[in-house]
Specification:
2 copies of one chain form a homodimer. Chain A is 31% helix and 24% strand. Chain A is of the alpha/beta class. Chain A has a single domain, classed as SPOUT methyltransferase, trefoil knot domain (Alpha/beta knot, 3-Layer(aba) Sandwich). At the A-B interface, helix 1, helix 2 and helix 5 of A face helix 1, helix 2 and helix 5 of B.
Chain lengths: 200, 200
């Protein structure tokens, strides 16, 4: 399995936003939608071995955790608007008391960053960080959980949680990329590493 | 300079489509919008050394060629909807008789695939192709012009034009990726190769 988490610093936690304004009133949910596209889509299929995670920290009801299970997700199209429709449903159908499947393969619930990490403690964590070791110098496990910020970096507290769970800091180079581009690169980079390994 | 061309097999050549339906009525212009995002955006800036090209072959008035010059483009936001607003303007302000700057850094005009390639004959062409040589075995020049299909491959005639101009066929691996993901990977891959070269 491969996991990607992208923090949503200001993602709205009430579904009353306009789908025509996801970069504005929805609290930059466009970043999350593009990250989901990069994490899950192939040319004519979805990556069934990838799960995507986000936590929305925007008003009025944070934090809302959303998980997308690549093996179970259905009917979502790759365009930002369509992906955002499903994020909106995950917010609207959020249930305070119960982790809920809001549409096939998409879940929402109340979960903090610490709780999400604890839940996946069997994974190997990698924190994308400009000051980290170059990806080519880091062995990436087959059960990787990548952690990324959005427009904002993680907080010091969140980084401390990552460190507590042994996260390795990795960098893709000196250029600062969009989160979605980092994810897209990582997917192809790891596919290529796997292909190479199977040839060697 | 780095150039990316993505063919738009059914992209509408009249701006009467609904921005809420770019994956449907607009003829998969969502693919082009995502490709533009991948080609041009960095985290807090645009790639000023990248130009993006597409030709819309959809009804009712094909072909319409659109060029986006990274060094001159202004005011465009990275979300699909905003990018599509600018593509729509490039279509609406298309002028049969004159290559036209429709908004800052974005141009449209009547140009065939052959004419576009001829216009850039000083570039080194690379045709993304599953049967091509692996990217790691191909030296990519500093004046690369990458050619990609969308949901459809190029036609035999278009491939013949590429061959006539010396295009090398390159592959990113055995997995079939979305055009936008290929572009995103190539940008980071080439940045990394440049960084490595400057260190060596």
């Amino acid at each position: 399995m491969r996991h990607f988490y992208v923090k949503s610093t200001i993602g709205k936690t009430c579904g009353d936003f306009n789908l025509n304004d996801t970069a504005g009133g929805a609290g930059r949910l466009d970043i999350i939608a593009r990250s989901i596209n990069s994490a899950l889509w192939l040319s004519h299929s979805l990556r069934r071995d990838v799960n995507f995670h986000t936590i929305l920290f925007g008003e009025p009801n944070p934090p809302i955790y959303i998980e997308i299970v690549g093996d179970k997700v259905r009917k979502v199209q790759p365009d930002e608007r369509n992906i955002t429709i499903f994020i909106k449903k995950a917010i609207e159908r959020f249930n305070e008391g119960r982790f809920t499947q809001t549409t096939p393969g998409i879940y929402s619930g109340r979960r903090t960053f610490d709780e999400m990490i604890e839940k996946h403690k069997d994974c190997d964590f990698y924190l994308l960080s400009e000051g980290g070791a170059d990806i080519s110098d880091v062995g990436i496990s087959d059960n990787a959980f990548f952690i990324l910020g959005d427009k904002e970096d993680l907080t010091a507290e969140e980084i401390a949680v990552c460190e507590k769970y042994g996260a390795k800091k990795v960098s893709l180079g000196k250029v600062p990329y969009l989160s979605s581009h980092c994810i897209g690169f990582l997917n192809v980079y790891l596919d290529r590493a796997t292909e190479k390994k199977s040839v060697d």
